[in-house]
């Protein structure tokens, strides 16, 4: 076996580290100024570019010329003007919607009245015919043996009143007049016709009041003195509503006795004249003049409202 040769590396002396005790505290440490480069900040500042900024027009120190003021005024004016236009359009739309709503309600009211006035006119014609029949009957016929036609004519011509009285509905019309809502209707012809309608309705009420006064003054005594109220009781057995009872009685073959009361006190010529006054100067004149005038205005208004607001 070979002998172990000493490793030359092992023979080299290892450098020994100084111990803490060997470090001299007297060794001076080089100052940082000697080991580091000196920084000169002013040199960098000199190398920086200088940027010159334009003046800001919004800056307080900027002086405005007339163009700036003009554009500011123009922008403000346009803003106010556009706001005014928007508000005007909104108000205009509200007025149009309100006008159409009122027109629709007014149209329905007029349409109902147009039907009602025709019904009242037809009944007035029958009432006038009944009065003319009574005139002739009182002139020539006996009052002791009265016909069924006399009974019905007395009921229709003298006793009944409400079937021939026309009372137009004026709820919407009064609202238009009293609330100032007529301003929503821009059509001049429409406003004129509404004014004519108000006059026509007033004339009808005035005429019907005159009819009632004639009735009370000249025909009331005829009913009190000569009407057979036992006949009234018997005919009401057909129906409690006297008008319906009379219609039922007319269609039936039944004949209910009717006795003309107090014949000895009957003023024949005075009664004939009173019936003629009530029939000719009252019912007939009102129907021919005022009812027909109302119908013409009513029809014109309905036609105009249909065309103006596209109603059906």
Q: How does this model look, in words?
A:
- With 312 residues, this protein is an all-alpha fold.
- The protein has a domain at 94-309.
- The protein is built from 10 helices and no strands.
- The protein has helices at residues 8-11, 32-35, 41-47, 66-140, 148-159, 171-178, 188-226, 229-235, 242-251, 268-309.
- The longest helix is centred in the first third of the chain and has 75 residues, at 66-140.
- It is rod-shaped, with a radius of gyration of 56 Å.
- The model is unreliable at 1-15 and 19-38 (pLDDT under 50).
- Keywords: Membrane, Transmembrane, Transmembrane helix.
- The chain crosses the membrane at residues 69-90.
Which properties best describe this structure?
312 residues, mainly alpha, rod-shaped
Class derived from helix and strand content? mainly alpha
Mean pLDDT: 82
Share of helical residues: 55-70%
Q: In DSSP terms, counting alpha (H) and pi (I) runs of 4 or more, how many helices?
A: 10
Uncertain segments: 1-15, 19-38
Report the sheet with the most strands, covering strand number, pairing sense and barrel closure.
none
Distance between the termini: 136 Å
Would you list the SSEs in sequence order as H and E?
HHHHHHHHHH
Instruction: Report the principal-axis shape.
Output: rod-shaped
Per DSSP E runs of 2 or more residues, the count of β-strands stands at 0
Radius of gyration: 56 Å
Strand content: under 5%
What is the topology?
Layout: H1 8-11, H2 32-35, H3 41-47, H4 66-140, H5 148-159, H6 171-178, H7 188-226, H8 229-235, H9 242-251, H10 268-309
Helix pairs in contact: 4-5, 4-6, 4-10, 7-10
